[in-house]
Amino acid sequence: MASVFSMIINGDLPGRFVWKDGEAVAFLTIEPVTPGHVLVVPRAEVDHWEQMDTAAFAHLSAVAQNVGRAVKDAFDAPRMGLLIAGLEVPHVHVHVFPALSLETFDLANANKNARPEDLDAAAEKIRASLRSLGYGEYVAD
């Protein structure tokens, strides 16, 4: 059975994509710890990050860094957070988010009732920032 992330990547479930390339995608989580919280996910289903091919993990990290730059710019974040928890969904994913405090790194503090219009607005801000930073070819419209 495909993971929920594979279903989002394949279009079987909706997703607010901000980045798409041949190996990875990035989309907003529906339970953000802060506005602008993005998940960077490889297209290939791999459960554990340490089992990824090194080149694929390096690409995922590069995408996370590029998306992080855009999120920082879009939300004027003082710092960016990066987290690999690996417990929520059995498909590698990297959390990239504005880090406002150490509490931001606790996924239990996520907003489980984020408003769809707020998520849509956050996605558009990130897409605009990605374009302005020169990553337009990867922006998912």
UniProtKB/TrEMBL annotation:
Keywords noted in UniProt: Hydrolase
Active site per UniProt: 93
Any one GO molecular-function label of the UniProt entry: hydrolase activity
SUPFAM superfamilies in UniProt: HIT-like
Annotated ranges, domain HIT: 4-107
This protein's name: Diadenosine tetraphosphate hydrolase
A single GO BP: nucleotide metabolic process
Keyword Signal: no
Motif stretch (Histidine triad motif): 91-95
Organism: Gordonia lacunae
Keyword Hydrolase: yes
